[in-house]
Design brief:
By secondary structure, the chain is α/β, with parallel strands linked by helices. It has helices spanning about 55-70, 75-90, 95-105, 110-130, 165-180, 190-205, 220-230, 240-255, 275-290, 310-320, 340-355, 405-415, 430-435, 475-480; strands spanning about 15-20, 20, 25, 30-35, 45-50, 135, 145-150, 155-160, 180-185, 210-215, 235-240, 260, 265-270, 300-305, 360, 375-380, 395-400, 420-425, 440-445, 465, 480-489. The structure holds nicotinamide-adenine-dinucleotide.
Length: about 500
């Protein structure tokens, strides 16, 4: 960055003032908003200066002006910037992870895993920048060279949620940059500090000013500019289905191509022939880790009747034993929910579910009351209950009985979503039939529904996603476009 940087050192014990970074300059003037610690009521991790639509407009213009030079930078040099940023992030894992935990609430072990993942993603796309970028095709003409190449789009807007505040931005920003685009990024208002750390490593690694612009703002203040500005070529969004719908309508009117990664209601089926100990461990991990706040979390557990109580007892035992507490304490398995709003939404959903017949199987237990903590819960309910339909985004597993394999697959598909799905079985034929029949973008056999590798495509079916897939070499499809060239020689 060329401007005065006020961006903080990772893991600092001070309360920094954070600002948007536009054309390499940090902007900290204007209204300040507190970045709250969900593990300690009243704890303030940082303050951030709230950007408005005018700032977003400046960010788009800065990106548009930088885009041509960046697209003209040889791909190996673009890749080298990403690799240096990965090195810097790895050197700072401990401090960045600590800050991530303090503002988002996931355990520090999970946060460290996420920061390391982000570094690995930067490195993966550094290499992808050098992958073949087109094809030559025989022409009908004499002495004609006919080829098609993938070329950058120009300015890409990136809007991200709080639940993976560094991995999700990395898996959007890294391919956008590797393939030669300039970016305007609006991170979640709940995780500005982690966002500043990602922007800092990219700038310190030598990314030219204006190529990545970070706008710290509320979505409603800047959304229209990021979605519909005439100089924005495409938008990649991850967040709730409700926000995604709003953005899709606005983008359609402006003819902005979008990639939307939205909610899920992911099923895990446990068949009678499964290893029940393994299934219970994997279902508990999928449902409760990160306090259930993963789009890929297991939220419906569909269990063959003959093993229903045997399996459910195992799952309840884990839910009752897993330690809830301070996410910076390495003995903790579940930290708090990410915010007061998130806590109130989950509590409200569970009260409504109980009022309409969901039976709680986990015994009440005390959790710390100085943050937004809740214990993991297991419910048994029927297919009409809202726990069969609504994304909870909290540490909650809802168990549904199934008559047999066919009934279980029917229930798994009985949702508007289709992000991830898992089956636990020792029967290879059923496993493969499940892969064929389940409507989900990611299918796991004998593995939890959450947990992704970055070198393969990721995305959902139906209401969980829209547009081309993210991650792996599939990312090229969204972040580039074809240019077809005819040369008569
Ligand atoms: P959210 O929709 O509230 O916010 C996501 C982002 O959109 C934030 O940066 C927010 O500021 C911004 N935003 C809000 N209103 C906007 C508007 N009008 N215009 C433009 N931007 C706007 O979601 P969240 O609470 O941050 O994240 C949780 C949700 O994200 C869950 O539903 C979860 O399933 C989903 N998610 C999906 C995936 C996936 O890959 N499918 C991954 C992670 C999270």
């Amino acid at each position: 960055m060329t401007g005065t940087s006020t961006q903080p050192a990772a893991g600092s014990h001070e309360t920094p003032l954070l600002g948007s970074v536009i054309d390499g300059v940090a902007h900290t003037a204007g209204e300040q908003v507190e970045d709250l610690d969900p593990a300690h009521h009243g704890g303030v991790v940082a303050r951030w200066a709230r950007a408005d639509a005018e700032a977003a407009e400046k960010a788009v213009v800065a990106a548009a002006e930088a885009a041509g030079r960046w697209a003209g930078t040889p791909a190996p040099l673009r890749g080298a910037v990403l690799r240096r940023a990965a090195d810097l992030l790895e050197q700072r894992v401990t401090g960045v992870a600590r800050d991530l935990t303090r503002e988002e609430g996931k355990t520090v072990g999970e946060a460290e895993g996420e920061v390391k993942r982000a570094a690995a993603i930067l490195r993966y796309f550094a290499a992808e920048a050098l992958a073949p970028d087109g094809e030559t095709v025989p022409s009908h003409g004499n002495d004609t060279l006919l080829y098609a190449r993938r070329v950058p789009l120009g300015v890409v807007s990136v809007i991200t949620p709080w639940n993976f505040p560094i991995a999700i931005p990395a898996w959007k920003i890294a391919p956008a940059l590797a393939y030669g685009n300039a970016v305007v990024w609006k991170p979640s208002e709940l995780t500005p500090l982690t966002s500043c750390h990602l922007a800092s490593v990219l700038h310190e690694a030598g990314l030219p000013d204006g190529v990545l612009n970070m706008v710290l703002a509320y979505g409603q203040d800047v959304g229209d500019v990021l979605v519909a500005h005439s100089r924005v070529a495409a938008l990649s969004f991850t967040g709730s289905t409700a926000t995604g719908r709003r953005i899709a309508r606005r983008a359609a009117a402006a003819m902005t191509p979008v990639q939307l990664e939205l909610g899920g209601k992911n099923p895990a089926i446990v068949l009678a022939d499964a290893d029940l100990d393994h299934a219970a461990e994997q279902v508990a991990r999928g449902a409760f880790l990160s306090t259930g706040q993963k789009c890929t979390a297991t939220s419906r557990v569909i269990v063959e009747n003959s093993v229903l109580s045997e399996f459910t007892d195992r799952l309840v035992t884990k839910a009752e034993a897993w330690r809830v507490g301070d996410p910076l304490d390495r003995a903790t398995v579940l930290g708090p929910l990410a915010s007061q709003g998130q806590y109130e939404r989950v509590r409200q959903l569970l009260s409504s579910a109980e009022a309409t017949g969901a039976e709680r199987l986990t015994a009440p237990r005390r959790v710390p009351d100085d943050g937004w903590y809740m214990a993991p819960e297991v419910y048994r309910c029927d297919a009409a209950n809202l726990l069969a339909r609504e994304e909870v985004f909290g540490p909650v597993a809802a168990v549904f009985p199934a008559a047999d394999f066919d009934d279980a697959v029917y229930q798994a598909n009985d949702t508007p979503y289709g992000l991830t799905a898992a089956l636990f079985t020792t029967d290879l034929g059923r496993a493969l039939r499940f892969v064929d029949r389940v409507q989900a973008g990611v299918v796991k056999i004998n593995q939890e529904t959450a947990g992704l590798e970055f070198q393969v495509p990721f995305g959902g079916m139906r209401a969980s996603s829209s547009g081309p897939r993210e991650q792996g070499n599939a990312a090229r499809e969204f972040y580039t476009q074809w240019k077809t060239v005819y040369i008569d020689y």
